[in-house]
Amino acid sequence: MRKILRDTCIFAALMILTVFAFSIAGVGFTEEIKLVFELFGLAFILSVINYIFDEKTSFSIIVGYLVKYLIVSVVVIAFGFIVGWFYPSNFWMAFIYVGVITVIVYALDSVKTEKDIEEINEMVKLNKNEKVEFTPLKKRKGWKVLLVLIAAMALLSSSLMAVYVYMANSATVPQYSGYCLNGFIISLVAAVFLLGVLAVYFVVYSSRRKKNI
Amino acid sequence: MRVEQRQVKDQPLTVIVEYPEYDKSVDNLINKIKNMSISFTGKSDGKTVSIDISDIYYIENVERKIFLYSRKDVYRYDGSMADIDSSIGETDLVRISRTCFMNVSHLKEIMQIKNSHLEAVLDNGEKLIVSRKYLKDIKKIFRRKLL
Question: Under an 8 A CB cutoff, do B132 and A114 touch?
Fold first, then answer.
């Protein structure tokens, strides 16, 4: 499934690049086409940074993600200022956008790492013809990490909503109140997505527990 | 599986594998036999010793010096990490971080320690830090071994 999803993303990216590249000849270098190429450019820069970071550093998961979050936020803000996405009034949104994506990637990575460790430990026991013991929910970390991150996203989205409502009700509505609404929607979507991941986590856990009983 | 052995004087040790059909189990067996002949040359107390790959627990690069660790002894290796990488092939040695290779046949368990680093515990009690990106390589070796 993962391979299909990855291939779908690569294929979609190639199609978008090809279609937009041909569109330049027809309609010229429009704002939309420019945005697509800028996004691909940023994605390439971030991928290079991510690769170098993973190759050269050996931080723990949490510290690694915190450092990555700071580096990526700075790069996105700098890139955003260069291409004209951000202005002094809205650049702080980058911290929310990058933060939400970092939280989702960190959550998925934590769950995957836990699954990998469990799988390896099971294989070690099988290889030595020892009895495989099933790890109970109490000793697992993945769902706890997910719960904390869901709470963080819920807190972020409700704070942004509160700020938005406060701004909307004030005498002079600030120009950037819309950014708060965007942030609210993004963090809410992230919270819902993480809830979905948590549900899948419990489904997989209970099915594996049944198999081991 | 039938096992036959015979002495043939003045010839090197030779293993002949006969099979009705070449399948995964035959491939596995041949790999195991091939891996038995892989060894590393290490130095300890001025003596040069050949260490069988199965006796190596882990290999570590400490300040650009490479050391081979067996259950109790440590040997200095003159080659580079790249040399080791290219010679381990389908053995039980796997890279677990930028500076360390581990022999998975001596692995007891992997656990996530408090600062969310990953730690491999070997059956002699040694503990090694594992980088997350190499977990898939460890799994690959076990999948091959359990075929």
Answer: no
Q: Please give the tally of structural domains in chain B.
A: 1
| Enclosing domain of residue B66 | 24-145
Is B139 within 8 Å of A123 when comparing Cβ atoms?
Answer: yes
Contacts of B111 in chain A (CB under 8 A): 117
ipTM of the complex: 0.81
Which pTM does this prediction carry?
0.78
Domain boundaries, chain A: 87-212
Q: Greater confidence, B123 or A169?
A: B123
The alpha carbons of chain B give a radius of gyration, in whole angstroms, of 17
From the CB of residue A14, how many other CB atoms can be counted at a distance below 10 Å?
10
Give me the CATH number covering residue B43: 2.40.50.1020
Residue A93 has pLDDT above 90, yes or no: no
Residue B79 placed within a domain: yes
pLDDT per position as a tens digit, B44-59: 888 899 898 888 999 9
- Residues of chain B with Cβ-Cβ distance to A123 below 8 Å are 139, 142-143, 145-146
Residues with Cβ within 8 Å of A191's Cβ and at least 6 positions away in sequence, in order, are A150, A153, A154, A157
* Residues whose CB is less than 8 angstroms from the CB of residue A179 and which lie 6 or more positions away in sequence, other chains included: A90, A93
* Nearest Cα residue in chain B from A54: B133
Is the CB of A113 less than 8 angstroms away from the CB of B135?
Answer: yes
